[in-house]
């Protein structure tokens, strides 16, 4: 939707993250007052016989909560990495994601 100055107010930025059977979407959107907020959507494909649907869960995150949210997320992930699973190699997933992104890029060439 365009505002009176011709700017698209709906979606400003979008990032898609494929994670196994789930896909996460990080979308920045604007309000009518030209303020911004983030929606985080988890989308999971459900197979019903020959058909499929998507189950979606959405979080709305407003600018005043960005810092607290990121801080809590980082603290939670760090706790799993250092306290609960200190010997686990989490870097294997980083490399896996890079390889998948590279393969996806090759498909478009």
TrEMBL record:
Belongs to the PUR DNA-binding protein family. This is DNA-binding protein. Keywords: DNA-binding. Pfam families: DUF3276. Coiled coil: none annotated. GO terms for molecular function: purine-rich negative regulatory element binding; RNA polymerase II transcription regulatory region sequence-specific DNA binding. Transmembrane segments: none annotated. Signal peptide: none annotated.
